[in-house]
Amino acid sequence: MDYRSRYPTLLKFLSFLIDAFLVVGGVSVLLLIFSNAVLRGAAGFDLAWSLEITAFLLLWLTFLGCAAATARGAHMRVTEIAEKIIPKKMQPFLELIINSLIVVLLVSLIYHGYNISLHTWAQKTTVLYWPVGLLYASLPAGMALTLIFHLHNFMTDIRASLSGVDGGSTKSDDHSWEDFE
Fold this sequence. Notes:
Its main location: membrane. This is TRAP transporter small permease protein. This protein is mainly alpha-helical. It has helices at about 10-40, 50-70, 80-85, 90-120, 130-135, 140-165. The protein has 6 helices and no strands. The longest helix is centred in the first third of the chain and has 34 residues, at about 10-40.
C-alpha cells in the first residue's frame, strides 16, 4: 500500500524531493556511464571523474531508494507462512514485533553508518578529492529517512488496526497485487 496519500504535507514534500533526486540521479548515472563508454570506445580514453561520481550517485540512490520504497510500502513481504501457521488473533502481535525489529535495525544502521562516515571523512577520493565519508554518509542519511517513513507507516497501521480499518498491512479483496508477486 502506498502510504504517501496519508502523509502530512512535510512528509509528502520530503517524499517528492527524494523521488526527484532518484530520477535526476538515475538519469545522471545513465548519461555518465554511456558517455564514458562512448569516449573509451571512440576516443580511447575515459573520464576518471565520472567513475567516482557514478559510485557516489549509486550509493546515494540505493539508500534513498530504500526510503522511497518505504514511503510507498513497497518493500517485499512474505506473509503466506505467517498466515498459515500463526492464528489470526496473534498476527497483529507478530506485526508489532516485526516493525519493532525493523526500527531497532534502522537505528543500528544509522548509528554505525554515522560512525563509519565520521571516521572516513578525512580521507579523500583519488580524482575529485571529495571526502570518502560523504560516500558512507549515504547509509545513515538514507536509513534516517527510511526510519521516519517507517515510523509514520507503523503508526498509521496501528491506528487503523485499533479502529478496525485496513491500514495497509493486510491484503484486501483486490487481488491485482498478485500480478507483482
